[in-house]
Amino acid sequence: MISRRILLAGGAALTGLSACGMTPTTSKLRTGQHPQVTSLVVQKSKRRLLLLDRGAEIASFGIALGRNPVGPKEREGDGRTPEGSYYITRLNPNSHYHLALGISYPSTLDVAHARARGVSPGGDIFIHGQPEGVTGAQRIQGDWTAGCIAVSNQEIERIYALVQPGTPILIQA
Questions:
Q1: 61 CB neighbour count, 10 Å cutoff
Q2: How far apart, in whole angstroms, are the C-alpha atoms of residue 163 and residue 92?
Q3: Which of 9, 98, 170, 171 falls 20 to 30 Å from 46 in CA-CA distance?
Q4: pLDDT digits (tens, 9 = 90+) for 66-87
Q5: Superfamily (CATH) of domain 25-172
């Protein structure tokens, strides 16, 4: 049986969170708790990366995209970030950028579309931090990647700690 003291303490904690404008869901990353990230969503038009736990948003990050961000990736070197359903393939602690999570682009459908046009679909699409020399919360402004999704180094450290290989990622226009 739950004691009255525990119920009162829990109620006080929830009241304190709501008074700060934080809900228990959005506060998880700030309190050191480790929520389960069950999927990611990239909203290219809004320049946002969402971390979700069974559909509930637990974190949101501003992002930079490929230098030519409008439209889906069509071929290697087009500077576009792909659109579609993928998954996280690997965690790379030795990236040229500050940590990286591999994305399963190109899919078999992406390869087929590229072959039909006689071009290479490209590859090596990641969620990553900033290049060497950019630290902490600093970030390069604008869309600057070759097709990857970039966040600050502080943000990639949080994402890297929470996301596992096999996690689905939906990249939307």
A1: 19
A2: 12
A3: 98
A4: 999 999 999 999 999 999 999 9
A5: L,D-transpeptidase catalytic domain-like (2.40.440.10)
Q: List strand residue ranges (DSSP E) for the chain, in order.
A: 39-43, 48-53, 56-62, 84-92, 100-103, 126-128, 149-150, 168-172
Q: What share of the chain is helix, strand, coil (3-state, %, to 5)?
A: 25, 25, 45
Using CA atoms, how far apart are residues 155 and 134, in angstroms rounded to an integer? 13
Burial class (CB in 10 A: 0-12, 13-18, 19+), 42: buried
Sign of the torsion angle spanned by Cα atoms 150, 155, 161, 163: negative
pLDDT band at 32 (very low <50, low <70, confident <90, very high): low
For residues 82 and 28, which has the higher predicted lDDT (pLDDT)?
82
Tens-place pLDDT, residues 120-141: 999 999 999 999 888 888 999 9
Contact 103, 86 (CB under 8 A): yes
Q: Tokens at residue 46, please?
A: 């809004």
pTM above 0.85, yes or no: no
Establish whether 148 is a catalytic residue: yes
Measure CA 97 to chain center: 15
